[in-house]
Amino acid sequence: MANTKQNAIMRLNNVKMYFPLKKEKIFSRERPCVKAVDGVTIDVYEGETLGLVGESGCGKTTLGRIMLQLYTQTEGSVLYRGITLNDYSPAYAMKDASKIPLVKGTPEEMVKNFEKQAKLAGGLLLHDDLVDLSHKIKCSLSAVKEVNRLETALGLLSIKRVAYEESENLSTAEKSKLSKVVVKMKTQEAELEKATKKRDDCDALLAEIREKCKNKPGYDILDAARDVSIDLSRLTKEEMRRQRRHLQVIFQDPYSSLNSRFTVGNIISEALVAHNMYGKGTKQLEKYTLDVMDKCGLQKYFLHRYPHQFSGGQRQRIGIARALAPSPKFIVCDEPVSALDVSIQSQIINLLMDLKDSGGYTYLFISHDLSAVKFISDRVGVMYLGNLVELASSDNIFLEPLHPYTNVLLKAIPTTDEQSRKELQVIEGDIPSPVNPPPGCKFHTRCEYVQDICKTDVPEWRELRPEHWVACHFPVSDSDWTENYASDLSEV
Q: What's the CA gap between 351 and 346, in Å, rounded?
């Protein structure tokens, strides 16, 4: 199970994707739009598999493509946190950095200015880095005070030592006192040496910060961040192209997603050459390609064959190998098994899980097959008509669903248990038009628990239980759910 306290590698905030349609009337001011995604806020945590389920047309694939910036969202932000600014510096970062005032003044003033800069820098500058730099400045201040204190103390001890040594006849008591003074001086001299080094190191850091900020206001402080958030929609076309190696996709159709004129070797190695990871035609490229093929269950002699010579399952393995070749951090699996035979689906899902465990990838697994989602996912998000209606761990979603839509989806799963008395439940009615969705809760036209408020007020997205989010005025709490349905789902 993914730990939700770890870093979010992908963060979506109020993302909307509207596809404009032709105006019905020439002089009409309003242009109708298909509201494919309508205000989704969600985090994808590093190393997890987030399942995304819902009926066809609910916006799952559109949301996945927004994450990859194959679609540029109409509204909202898509932040990706997989790299450092030392590896990747988008042009817009310089514009944001220019808004940050110069770091100047005394160390005390610099400490106070850091928090102001954090707000101006937005998502680019991490709080942890501010704390780290502020701590070093404070250490410098304390080191200066410590040096001053030790120098004063040594001065006083030196006066005492001279006074004792200049005495012509020292008594036994005075000799003892002189001995103690000498020992104390040696101890404090060692402490002074350490404090002076600490002060000098911190002063050097402050001098470096001042020098950098003098030439490029604020930017190099951003550059010091270990990890940054890139707002993907603000990248230029060339910047996004370079970013592609970190964000990959496995397509639904293993037939049309492969170039029929390319050999398997060309298909897998194309991205490696495009991103200058290996030289074209080199032995190193061929060796790496063969290694990737082996991890994906493809034989070495497939290297020079063409897609039409393979079965559907083998083609999907080629598609998986292509996605994994540039060593991405985030992969969208867009219904990767829906076009395959049932006998092959489990093999591909097991392959994806094995690759994730060995490579540490993060998946968004899109599917309408709830049994596949339950098997592979750490968390599951349920979408309906462009909105997330429920989000929780895979276990909680399947054992204790809260949204009526999730309930009905799960009750519609067929099982092979002949002794089960469970009757499959069909969702009544059709999905409303995304061009003109119903007001209030969009599911109210098909919900058996509908109340008046559901028809007028949009339900709040709230955490009803720990790590279990739902958007519903009247969350379902079926007393017979666990008894009659959960046991059947355990066999799915």
A: 8
Domain range summary for the chain, segments of one domain joined by +? 8-81+233-384, 91-223
Beta bridge partners of 334: 366
Residue (of 356, 300, 294, 368) closest to 331 by Cα position: 356
End-to-end CA distance of the chain: 19
Report the alpha-carbon distance of residue 246 to residue 323 in Å, rounded.
Answer: 10
* pLDDT above 90 coverage of the chain, percent: 40
Do the beta carbons of residue 314 and residue 346 sit within 8 Å? Answer: no
pTM: 0.71
433 vs 217, higher pLDDT: 433
Separation of alpha carbons 225 and 125, rounded Å: 6
CA atoms of 3 and 415, how far apart (whole Å): 31
- Percent over 70 (pLDDT), the chain: 68
Residues 6+ apart with CB under 8 A from 214: 102
CA angle 285, 287, 288 (to 5 degrees): 65
Task: Between 400 and 154, name the one with better pLDDT.
Answer: 400
Q: Where does 8-81+233-384 sit in CATH, by number? A: 3.40.50.300
Alpha helix stretches (DSSP H) within 279-435: 283-295, 312-324, 342-359, 370-376, 394-399, 404-411
Q: Distance (Å, rounded) from C-alpha 427 to C-alpha 431?
A: 10
- Integer Cα distance of 71 and 279 in angstroms: 31
Among 157-171, 200-214, 216-230, 382-396, the range with the most confident prediction by mean pLDDT is: 382-396
- And the tokens for 228? 């940054």
